[in-house]
Design brief:
Elements: H1 5-10, H2 12-18, H3 24-35, H4 41-50, H5 59-72, E1 77-80, E2 83-84, H6 87-97, E3 115-118, E4 131-134, E5 142-145, E6 150-152, H7 164-167
Antiparallel strand pairs: 1-2, 1-3, 4-5, 5-6
Length: 173
Amino acid sequence: MNIPPEMWDQHYGELKEMYHAKTLPQIKLHMETNHGFQASDNQYASAFKKWGWRKNFKESEWKWVHQQILKRKRDTVVYDNDMMVPPEKVRREMYRRFPPSFKPASSPVATPPRITVRTPDPETPLASMQILVEEETPQSPYYLHNSSSLLPLNDNTIPILPRSIGESNPKCY
């Protein structure tokens, strides 16, 4: 069944909120149950592609994000196409792609076209979140950084960010 573009546009905001928080089967079930909106997997994929949504970054994009976080050494929020990337996902990707033994390249990585990195002002609720950054110290190369303190981590500790940070933000995925 062909769904007219106006129908997709009518549900744009709701689909955007669910896009990174839920799987495609969960989105489909929600849309069918609450709106009688029945579309195939391919139709959803086409709509998401048309809107420029994606769930994963390229390796070069993560390198750029890593450089920006290292440069800022304070609260940092990553956005893809004006949608906030969940801080837990950023932390997990930084730890997975850039382990403590990783030495960052000295040459800068080109800025990706759709990704922005922002440092929120201290009055926003996100200012208290903690993002993983690298520090040069012999005991433990990774620290959690927030505006008030640096906390050492042992080699096998992976910090867990509060889930409530992204859940209250409608633009977070």
